[in-house]
Amino acid sequence: MKARARRHTGRGRLFAIVRSAVRHRLDAALPTDALIASGVPPILRWALLAWPGRWLPTPRLEHAVRLRLALEELGPVFIKFGQLLSTRRDLLPADYADELALLQDHVPPFDGERAQAIVADALGEDFAKEIKQFDLEPIASASIAQVHGATLADDAQVVVKVVRPDIEETIRADLDLLAQFAGWIHHHIDASQRLHLPEVVSEYADTVLKELDMAQEAANTQRLRENFAASKLLYVPRVHHQLTRPNVLVLERIDGVPVGDLDKLKACGANLEVLAQRGVETFFTQVFIHNFFHADMHPGNIFVDVTDPENPRYIALDCAIIGQLTERDQDYLARNLLAFFNRDYRQVARLHFESGWIPQQTDEAQFEAVIREVCDPIFAKPLSEISFGHFLVTLLRTAADFNMEIQPQLVLLQKTLLYIEGVGRTLYPQLDLWETAKPFMEGWMAERVGPLATLRSFADRAPEIIEHLPRLPELITDTSRALRRLESGLKEQQAVTGKLEAELAQQQRRRRRHRLAGTVLIALATALLWEPAGQVLGVSFGSVAGVASALAGAYLLLAKA
């Protein structure tokens, strides 16, 4: 029943997408003639040839503006996907990236009484016991949920985040369409292979669906709060777990200044230089120390606690989207950053090859030379004037020329870094992200791979080492025997492999002889069955010999060995 409903919703959404694309003339941005001349599938080529929009006048609005308007019209999945794309300036032209960055996830609120009814239904008896007052006028409204103020029975001030009714089916239908579209592009357009669109859409779908689950957001918020419990960098509101449900989240109501309200921050006397530097430190702490980072830190989700203006601290909201890296990605990312800080382009090139991000057949020296050519002019400026985000985009565009494959697991990281630098430079234009980040990364690497790291590893495993110490001679002997067995096994395997190779070579020689003999017999059969030859040799003899030769030749040609 649900599958049928989703198919019905999917067809309706497909119609809505097509209607929006036509209304905003998104087709006008397509390089139609180039696509027709390229190797696109025939059905698409004929569709492009028959499309009447080719003869319509060019729209007045810019292509990027019309794309933004269409995405806003289509709702949450497309808005958030556009926001994600806006951070991928290595893939998009600058005008598109700038315009998509303006996408606003604000929609008219749904009725406050209905929101109250949803919360009451979710909490059951706890609603009357625990909720003293529920404000019908929402504080904020977005495409997936809206937020209401409330007062608990103990007079604690909270905010209640309520998922919009009936939004899940629409979101799942949109995600299905995006996945189908990404799969079609991946399989039919060769140039899209390095983008890994199906993987990007899959990770994006996982991210969006998590935003629907308030219980998951509650768990993320709690973990982030614990990570920074003793820190002056970041404050995370307390979760009221007993009042949280899959579609309802209840949080402590915070009192802070929106990070985008620069005038108010200045009026409060906040030290903006300290605040900007702490933003960078907060980011690197989340990524490299905790390996659990808030991946949606746009200005709307960040407030500032100005209780102590000289030591302002960030307040993080909306922890639905969280990013994590593997240890290998952490290590390669840290090494790459340090190599760039030290302008060691040979190390940068080597790391890209070791990580598998660049095809192994690429000329490493050429890649290093191009990286140097791109980076040297950037580093000629004072570091405080260099945008790390711009630098990263330039680097990725350069690497794309060497068929560097998109790393889906790094998309959220890049998006977050661009947000953080943007916020930091807005607060304090002289922010030197490099100066703040480099000592942090050097300290992290020293802890991970330096002598102290080795000692710490020994200390952590000391009980296990001591436990096995009496058995050390036995372990060495067993290891030696195992290595000898392994060596003997490898020799036996090599002997078997050599024998198989010899047999295969013999079979190939036999096949070549059979094919040669078969070809000769077929030629002889042709000559014997040829009419003039039959007249000279006698019909009966020539026919019999010809048929026999043909059968023998066919057998030899078709035989497997």
Identify the notable features of this structure and list them briefly.
561 residues, single chain, alpha+beta, globular
Furnish the topology, listing elements before pairings.
Elements: H1 2-23, H2 32-37, H3 42-50, H4 63-74, H5 76-86, H6 94-100, H7 112-123, H8 125-130, E1 131-141, E2 145-152, E3 157-163, H9 167-188, H10 197-211, H11 214-227, E4 234-235, E5 248-252, E6 257-258, H12 262-267, H13 272-290, E7 293-294, E8 302-305, E9 313-316, E10 322-323, H14 327-341, H15 345-354, H16 364-379, H17 388-400, H18 411-427, H19 433-449, H20 451-460, H21 462-468, H22 472-529, H23 531-537, H24 539-558
Parallel strand pairs: 4-9
Antiparallel strand pairs: 1-2, 2-3, 3-5, 6-8, 7-10, 8-9
Helix pairs in contact: 1-4, 1-9, 4-5, 4-6, 5-6, 9-10, 13-18, 13-19, 14-15, 14-19, 15-16, 16-17, 19-20, 22-24, 23-24
Question: Could you please describe the fold and organization of this structure?
Answer:
- The chain is an alpha+beta fold and about 550 residues long.
- Among the domains are: about 1-105; about 260-460, no CATH class; about 475-560.
- Helices cover about 65% and strands about 10% of the residues.
- It is built from 24 helices and ten strands.
- It has helices spanning about 1-25, 30-35, 40-50, 65-75, 75-85, 95-100, 110-125, 125-130, 165-190, 195-210, 215-225, 260-265, 270-290, 325-340, 345-355, 365-380, 390-400, 410-425, 435-450, 450-460, 460-470, 470-530, 530-535, 540-560; strands at about 130-140, 145-150, 155-165, 235, 250, 255-260, 295, 300-305, 315, 320-325.
- Strands 1-2-3-5 form a four-stranded antiparallel sheet. Strands 4-9-8-6 form a four-stranded mixed sheet.
- Helix 5 (about 75-85) crosses helix 6 (about 95-100) and helix 16 (about 365-380) packs antiparallel against helix 17 (about 390-400).
- The longest helix is centred in the C-terminal third of the chain and has 58 residues, at about 470-530.
- The chain is globular, with a radius of gyration of 33 Å.
- The mean pLDDT is about 80.
